[in-house]
Amino acid sequence: MSREAMQRAVALCGALLLCVALIFVLRERRGPYFARPLTVMDHAGVREHETREALLLIPQVEPLLPRGAEVTCFRPRKGQAWNDDGVYLTAVGLLPHQSVLPPWTAGANLRGQQVTQYVIAVGAPLDHPSYAAVAQFPQGWLYKRR
Amino acid sequence: MSHAVWVAASLLFVLFGIADRELDVSSRLAVRFATGIAIGGTVMWAESLVGIPWTRVALVIPLLLFAGCWSLMRGQRHEAPATSNQQLNFALQIAPILALAIYAAATARETSGDLLYFWGPKAQRFFFAQKIDADFLAFPHYFLMHPDYPPLQPLVYVWSSIAAHRFSYWGATFLTPLYLVTAVLAFRGYAARPIGSAKANTFATLLAALLAFGFAKSQAAGGADPQLVMFAIVALSAITFADATPIAAIALAGAAFTKVEGAAFAIVVVIAYTLVRRDWRRTAILGLPAAILLGSWILFARAHGLVDTYARGRTPLHFENLGLVLAVTAVEARYGAMGLPWIAALAPIAFARNWRRAALPLLVAAASIAYTIFFYLHEPNAAWWIRASAERVLLTPLAALLVATAAASE
Questions:
Q1: Which residues of B, range 279-338, sit inside 8 Å of A by Cβ?
Q2: Would you place residue B85 in the very low, low, confident or very high pLDDT band (cuts 50, 70, 90)?
Q3: For a disulfide at B21, which of A42, A85, B78, B300, Cβ 3.0-4.6 Å?
Q4: pTM for the complete prediction?
Q5: How big is chain B by its Cα radius of gyration, in Å?
């Protein structure tokens, strides 16, 4: 076997092994393997991505929100807001006609007019005296300031 | 349907790019696509600076004028090499790899979180504002979106959104296989002349497998790394296998305008080129577009109080973390596959003949690893950052190594 043929064989072996490794990577990102995903993050990682439920919920909530409304979005912990940056930043992209603010603007220490107008609570209900639920969806709730 | 329109609109960049006419048709289209992105992004940036709102007419007219002028300047058309069985063989070789890459994007198996956290939101807001919205970037609550990151990635998304009348997260993920094909075809086109079509096809197949694996493993789709790697490969191939300095200069400008690491990449390429070629005139041509484009962006960022990442060069280096940074980077560099990408890229170099041609990309690969470590040393608690980014960031030196391996095979 010539030097050149050896070199090409080694390179093609490398390509083949990388393809096998790629198939393993794709396999470990959970099934179903041939179903149309609902969101762009459905199989991003070995566990469900933090933004997946928000990606499903926010497009359902969006028609209920007035243009220019101030809104925040997070996954409540024990019914309270926390620095859920991933979900909040995702909402900025999904709600281009609203003003999306960070979760602390619906913090437990704020009351009445101090809190943001709307809260999108992903995955768990919000427990805050200044908010009332206005709509419920399979992935969460929309709250409006009382 | 609008997702398909969105992706198809990005292909229009082919109309406004430039390429060497000595390349075969597919490689020429690939190089035109890559340079078209850089040129189109520059026009969008210039219009935003002078206050022209982005519309289809406002964007297409200056780009068509540019493309027409370039065509007239180039003069007589050269005959492109004829298509041959080699091209058919190559198409058959990369078809399964491309199918895997498209499958990965279509089933949401390689999407980057950064697409949702900042690249997508920036593109959405710029699209509705019809400009680079400095007020949005400067909004204190959006500080986590890295306001001074260069804007070429969102500009490409805005371009397609203008055509499709909406932004598409799916479209953004599908650009990754497109960047992969572009990088592979451009590499193959430039490599074919010095190392021969058969070997160029083999190394292009290896490059396709390397990028398909790397993009999926590092979950890069929709983020800026696939675009950066594409520009890096176009630039390196153009100056390693040919003397296509203007093409490399445009690709380097694209890299510098895509990611912060792209600026570091452009600098190391210019330095390596100076050391290896010792041609000052060409060195100036190589670095000037990137310097002008990035310089204008940093001035804009400074004027609007956006500078953050570019100011980190002044923060202290944590040399006490060097051992930790090297160890964690080494672990991440294994790509969960015992370092297979490095082995695959380097193994054929055992049969090397032409180290002279390989010197430039080898220097760039080494320097790219060095600047990656340098960036990590600026962070006091770097381990989390390395785990989150090393697999993506190391794709650039990996690609440079593969270019070097191919060049050494001449």
A1: 335-337
A2: confident
A3: B78
A4: 0.96
A5: 20
Q: Does A80 touch chain B (CB under 8 A)?
A: no
Residues in chain A with CB shorter than 8 Å from the CB of B136 are none
Q: In angstroms, rounded to a whole number, what is the distance separating the alpha carbons of residues A14 and A32?
A: 29
Q: Which two tokens stand for residue B179?
A: 């960047």
Judge: A11–B206 Cβ closer than 8 Å, yes or no. yes
Of B100, B108, B405, the CB nearest to A22: B100
Instruction: Find where tokens 């400009």 sit.
Output: B131
Specify whether the backbone of B130 is left (phi greater than 0), alpha (psi in -120 to 50) or beta.
left
Q: pLDDT tens digits for A13-65?
A: 999 999 999 999 999 999 899 999 999 999 998 899 999 999 999 999 999 99
CA dihedral of residues B344, B350, B353, B358 (deg, nearest 10): 50
Q: Which of B53, B248, B260 is nearest to B150 (CA)?
A: B260
ipTM value greater than 0.90: yes
pLDDT for B81 equals 56
Please tell me which of the candidates A15, A17, A93 has its beta carbon nearest to residue B116: A93
If contacts are CB pairs under 8 Å, which of residues 329-368 in chain B contact chain A?
335-337, 340-341, 343-345, 347-348, 350-351
Give me the DSSP letters along B14-47: HHH----TTS-HHHHHHHHHHHHHHHHHHHHHHH
